[in-house]
Specification:
elongated; two-stranded parallel sheet
């Protein structure tokens, strides 16, 4: 079998394979009419579904211009114009741990970057990886006093290490 991986099948091998698979060895690039009809119907269903989705999406865009603009910015892979102004400035030479600085940055840019989300295992508080005031991406039924659940939550809990 090793030889087959590096070379093409010859005409005799192709004909033999077609016989084994139940195809006419004299035909090439032959597609059964039922298969072709099924594939064409699938294309038509897909086009209809896409057209319906596109109409719904355009209605959503018209009804939600702010969210539509946000989606457009994110899809364009552009950062918000407010980002630079939101970034904190840290005084040189002042003692500040990396995790504390990171937490300050996350909480400063969180309000201008709704697409920012993240989390930690059981160390979110000490790692400063929680965006303050943001709910957790957990079912509301799993909310706790510390972590409010919301399907649009931005805080993930990865479990315990």
């Amino acid at each position: 079998t090793g030889k087959i991986h590096g070379s093409a099948l010859g005409a005799e091998e192709v004909a033999g394979l077609k016989v084994v698979l139940g195809f006419d060895p004299a035909k090439s690039f032959d597609v059964d009419q039922d298969v072709l009809a099924h594939a064409r119907a699938a294309v038509e269903r897909g086009a209809a579904a896409h057209s319906e989705w596109q109409s719904s999406f355009e209605a959503w865009q018209a009804a939600n211009p702010e969210n539509a603009a946000l989606l457009e910015r994110i899809e364009a892979k552009k950062l918000p114009v407010e980002l630079d102004a939101a970034l904190p400035v840290f005084e040189a030479g002042k003692d500040l741990s990396t995790r504390a600085a990171s937490g300050k940055v996350l909480n400063a840019i969180g309000p201008v970057m709704p697409e920012l989300w993240g989390g930690s295992a059981d160390l979110a508080e000490s790692n400063n990886t929680t965006i303050e005031g943001s709910p957790s991406f957990i079912p509301a039924s799993r909310s706790t006093e510390s972590w409010k659940g919301n399907p649009y939550g931005r805080v993930l809990h990865f479990g315990i290490r």
